Amino acid sequence: MNTEETAVASPLAALSPKMELHGKVTKIELYGAYIDVGLGQDGLLHISQISSDPVKNVNDKLKIDDEITVWVRNVDPEQGRIDLTAIQPPLLEWSEIQKGQVVTGKIIRIEKFGAFLDIGAERPGMIHVSELANNYINSPTDVVQLGQEIQARVINVSSKKKQIDLSVKALEEKIEVPKQIENDLDVSKLPTAMELALRGAMQGTEMGEQLITAKKPAKGRTDSKNERNRKAQTEAITRTLQNRPK
After folding, report:
1. 3-class secondary-structure state, position 67
2. 145-156 as b/e, with b when 16 or more CB fall inside 10 Å?
3. Alpha-carbon radius of gyration of the chain
4. Are residues 107 and 74 in the same domain?
5. What is the pTM (predicted TM-score) of this model?
6. 188 versus 69: which is more confidently predicted?
7. 10 Cβ partners below 8 Å, 6+ apart?
8. What are 77-102's pLDDT values in tens digits?
9. CA pair distance 76, 74, nearest whole angstrom
10. Quick check: 20 pLDDT over 50?
11. Confidence at residue 219, expressed as pLDDT on a 0 to 100 scale
C-alpha cells in the first residue's frame, strides 16, 4: 500500500482545523501533553496551547488520565501527527473577516458611544452609535439591548489593530441603478429639440417640422439673445427640411 492510500485510509484524514475533540491525557512532557482522542494516534497539546494565560509547568494544569476538551490546530495524516489546542479557536479568523461581509452576533456590551457585538471572532466588533440606525438616537439602548442577537455589516477591519468596525444601518443598501440606465435617465444627456429636429430631417420624417413648429415663440414676446440664436438655428433647420429630397 502506497503513502497516498495510507493517508486516505487513516482516520486522521477526517480531521480538520477547529474540529472539537474529547480525550484523555496519556503522557506529560516538559513541552506539553499527549492526548488520546480515540483515533489510534495521540495528539500533541503544546504547553503554549494549554491555556490563554502563560503556563510555566504542564503539571500545574494537567495530570495523567485527566479528561479534556481540545480542538484541532493542524493535522498531517501522512506523518500521523495531530496538533491540538485547549484554547477554543474563534469561529472567524482575521483572514476570514472581509469588509462588506454581513455577520450575526450577540450584543455583549453597551457604552454611550456604541455597542459591542460578539461575532465569534478573536475580538468583538464595535458598532458606533452613529451606525446603529439611520435616524438620530440618544443612546444605543434605544435600539439594542444586552444579549440581543442582530446582524451587522463589516465596514472596516484591521488585524494589526485587532479592530472590527460594524454598521447596522449599512445593511439598508442603496439600490444602484445600472450605469447605462442611469445615463439614459440623465436629463442633461437627453437630445434637445433642435437635435431631434435635425435627426428628423436626416431621417426624412416629419418629426423635425413638428418640433420646430412647437418651439416657435409666442407672438408679441421680445426675443432675448438666446431666443434670437435659437430662432436662427430654427430657420436654418427649416431651410434644410424644405430643401431635402422628396
Report:
1. strand
2. eeeeebebbbbe
3. 36
4. no
5. 0.55
6. 69
7. 77, 80
8. 888 899 999 999 998 999 999 999 99
9. 7
10. yes
11. 52
Q: Which amino acid is at 92?
A: L
Specify whether the CB–CB gap between 48 and 58 falls below 8 A. Answer: no
Residue range of the domain that includes 129 = 94-171
Q: Give the burial class of 32: count Cβ atoms within 10 A of its Cβ; 0-12 exposed, 13-18 middle, 19 or more buried.
A: buried
HEC per residue, 83-135: EEECCCCCCECHHHCCCCCEEEEEEEEEECCEEEEECCECCCEEEEHHHCCCC
Specify the number of domains making up the chain.
3
Domain end: 60, 85, 110, which one? Answer: 85
Q: Which three cell numbers stand for residue 172?
A: 439598508
Cell of 137: 438616537
Q: What's the Cα-to-Cα distance from 128 to each of 110, 118, 131, 152, 167, rounded to whole Å?
A: 10, 14, 5, 12, 7
What's the Cα-to-Cα distance from 44 to each of 35, 52, 69, 76, 103, rounded to whole Å? 6, 17, 13, 12, 33
Domain finish residue from 22, 55, 85? 85
Question: What pLDDT does 230 receive?
Answer: 66
Average pLDDT (121-140) is 94
- pLDDT of 5: 45
* DSSP letter assigned to residue 40: S
Helix (H) or strand (E) holding 25: strand 20-29
Residue 166 shares a structural domain with residue 183: no
Eight-class DSSP state of 54: -
Whether the Cβ atoms of residue 36 and residue 28 lie closer than 8 Å to each other:
no
DSSP 18: T
